[in-house]
Amino acid sequence: MEFPRVPLGDWIEGGLNWLTSEYSIVTRAISRVTQTGIDGLNDALMWLPDWSLLVIIAGLCWWLANVRLAIGAVAGLALIWNLDLWDPMIETLTLVVIATLVAVVIALPVGIAAALSERLYKTIMPVLDFMQTMPAFVYLIPAIPFFGIGSVSAIFATVIFSMPPAIRFTTLGIRQVPVELVEAADAYGATRGQKLLKVQLPMSLPTVMAGINQTIMLALSMVVIAAMIGADGLGSEVWRAIQRLRPGDGFEAGIAVVILAMLLDRLTQSLRKQRKS
Question: What's the number of domains the chain is made of?
């Protein structure tokens, strides 16, 4: 006996077609706003001389971490500049910053709500499991019909892909606040908002920062993959090297991605340690 095939792909495709036709005005508005933000931040970073941005980043590393990280940042960024990958690095950094900001703005309220509501927590956890298990390339598929080829689609796919850790860690941090502290706040007559702002969020901040760190790392990895749908930056350099069979150029761009990832990771970890202390 042969069972009929479930037309799941047809249903998904029909749903995407319906969404793109019914909400085209919304997606175009989002696309314009996002593209304006990308162009504005990218132009601002490009306007700065290379050496001045290098000095700013090195000073930030020194202030947040230590001299060793500042020296490593100077060495790594100088190598990127020497390999003529400075502009692609700036484009990648722009996409990561914007995608991370959007992801965090969405994730923090959702994570807080899930921490305070047991029903929402049980509902959202399977959704987050699904989102984190889905292969990264799949997120590129719905981005194209919504926003077309380019950086806006890359931002859309990156936000969806990188958001789950921030939600999960925010929820985890708030739920792990000692019950005694929450009960003490109740005993002093604190409202729900006062408990959240003055007890739960400050105590959970190191865990929240860990989630933001993971979001940044996932955003960087997705921005590189998003070169397949027209995103600019180091990912496009890697993609171009693959298409032209130039492994040397591909490894150079890959090393630049590693340097940028290590720099962002160390900076956010240093910020997390400062918050802990």
Answer: 1
What tens digit of pLDDT does each residue of 89-148 get?
A: 999 999 999 999 999 999 999 999 998 888 999 999 999 988 888 888 888 888 888 888
Alpha carbons within 13 A on the beta-carbon side of 193: 0
How many angstroms separate the Cα of 38 from the Cα of each of 35, 41, 46, 124?
5, 6, 12, 30
pTM over 0.85: yes
CATH label of the domain that carries residue 128: 1.10.3720.10
Among 27, 29, 219, 212, which Cα is nearest to 139's?
219
The answer to whether residue 73 is domain-embedded is: yes
Dig out the tokens for 28 from the structure.
Answer: 């175009």
Q: Tell me, yes or no, whether 129 lies in a domain.
A: yes
The Cα 234–Cα 256 span in angstroms is 7
Residue type, 113: A
Query: Is 20 inside a domain boundary?
Result: no
Is 13 contained in some domain?
no
**Domain range spanning residue 202?**
27-274
Write down the residue that tokens 């910020």 correspond to: 271
CA dist., res. 262 & res. 172, Å (int): 25
Let me know if 47 is exposed, middle or buried by CB neighbors in 10 A (0-12, 13-18, 19+). exposed
Residue 159, CA distances (Å) to 47, 184, 190 in order = 26, 38, 35
In whole angstroms, what is the distance from residue 120 CA to residue 97 CA?
Answer: 29
